[in-house]
Design goal:
Elements lengths: L1 E7 L4 H5 L1 E2 L9 H14 L6 E4 L3 H14 L3 E3 L14 E2 H7 L1 H9 L12 H18 L4 E6 L1 H11 L18 E7 L2 E9 L15
Parallel strand pairs: 1-6, 3-4, 3-6
Antiparallel strand pairs: 1-7, 2-5, 7-8
Helix pairs in contact: 2-3, 4-5, 6-7
């Protein structure tokens, strides 16, 4: 059995400004850096063997405090990078509603069937997350992994872990910044042990707006 801690990055500058970041490589906000320190302290005694992260700065920076505390490197992993948002990259949420009323409207109403204009669909994100994380769990069999990535990736992936259809993805909430979701992987299947845990943030919880 492989144990996995899924950690969403801390609040980013894009989160703070209401921007659909996608793969636009913005850093953490001041609050995000504090959240990163808090989640690092929370995870440092969980006997983590290896740390993987999306290569984007906001994820790598969230992983760094844990890396420093347990003296293990952060390994960049392209397979868990955020959604390729295509023409939506770095645009404000309000602008997306104006410029892409149909496609972004579908994102808001039925995210599991949505596709970013010129970018990835959530189904494509889900497929690469399943392939990547399953592969890491097989490679690191019997170990404990910390995996730092993004809200969109985790929403798509957790829909699979919870045996939800893509049509049900709209009913699954975004996980909070610097939250921890605990999984167990065995015999090719994922079990969600704890979803969106954030008590370690002690009043510093932040998340995407519900209408995103």
């Amino acid at each position: 059995m492989t144990k996995v801690f899924l950690v969403r990055h801390g609040q980013s500058e894009a989160n703070l400004k209401g921007i659909f970041a996608g793969r636009t490589d913005l850093e953490l906000s001041d609050l995000g850096r504090k959240q990163a320190e808090a989640v690092g302290k929370y995870l440092c005694d969980k006997d983590i063997d290896i740390i993987y992260s999306s290569p984007l700065k906001r994820a790598m920076s969230t992983a760094k405090p844990l890396s420093d505390l347990i003296s293990k490197p952060v390994i960049p992993c392209d397979g868990i990078i955020e959604i390729d948002a295509g023409e939506w990259e770095a645009k404000e949420f309000s602008e997306l509603s104006e410029k892409f009323p149909e496609t972004y409207g579908l994102w808001l109403s039925d995210i599991g069937n949505s596709v970013c204009d010129g970018g990835e669909s959530m189904v494509e994100v889900q497929q690469r997350m399943i392939k990547t994380i399953s592969g890491l769990c097989e490679k690191e069999d019997g170990k404990t992994i910390a995996l730092f990535a993004h809200a969109g990736c985790f929403r798509a992936f957790l829909c699979h872990c919870l045996n939800m259809t893509k049509e049900q993805m709209k009913d699954l909430s975004w996980v909070s910044n610097a939250s921890v979701t605990t999984l167990e992987y065995e015999n090719g299947k994922f079990k969600v042990v704890d979803l969106d845990y954030a008590d370690h943030l002690d009043g510093m919880v932040s998340n995407l707006p519900k209408n995103v």
